[in-house]
Amino acid sequence: MRSKLVLVLALVMGIVTTFLFFQYMNQVKAERAMNSNLVEIVVAKEKIMKNEQITSQKLQMAMVPEKALHANSIKSLEDADGKLANADIEPGEPVLSHRLGSQTTEHIYVSRKVRDGYRAVSVGSNFNQSVSNLIEPEDEVDIIFSKKGEGPEAKIESKIILGKARVLAVGRKMVLPEDTQEPYAEYSSVTVELTPEDAVKLVNSAEQGNIHFMLHKRPVITEKEAAGDSDQD
Prior knowledge:
Layout: H1 2-35, E1 38-44, E2 59-65, E3 84-85, E4 100-101, H2 103-106, E5 119-124, E6 140-148, E7 156-170, E8 189-194, H3 196-208, E9 210-215, H4 223-232
Antiparallel strand pairs: 1-2, 3-4, 5-8, 6-7, 6-9, 7-8
């Protein structure tokens, strides 16, 4: 009787052992299969704030299972370096392409171009006031205010009220002529970047009289300088 009980227990233990062995082997196979299909992606090394320009120092590479890979995951540091974050990115979080601001978005949103402490303000400008519509984005201009005095023999008084203001846009155009297929477009307004105090001064002047723009010379890159930049690259 005792020998039969021992035999039954041995059979049960054998079945349990065999089951656990096969379960363990299946788990090992699954882990090996998962590890053999790892993909390297870009993740945040530290927290990246919304509207912050991403640098490679804040990024690192990480391995993730291919099955868990997000379709918009960035796989190269170069694809994220220099872009703007459209949302907060936490440490260790994958960097996704739809959360990055491309150069195209810079040409759509003038608010991306405004520097800290400055504001964008637009004033109306006709053909003559805008240097024959020859002012382009990123030019620098002096702003002249003209107003006719009171009385029948009053003269027109003109003075420079703002100097070397940065042009953000002309009309709705925010890119340089060489960056667009339409290098010339007529416009009736100029948007400049000013401090809040200077912006109020410009609007107040535009309401009282006429505004003209004087265009500064844009720095010219010589062939020698261009060749030097190429050598450095």
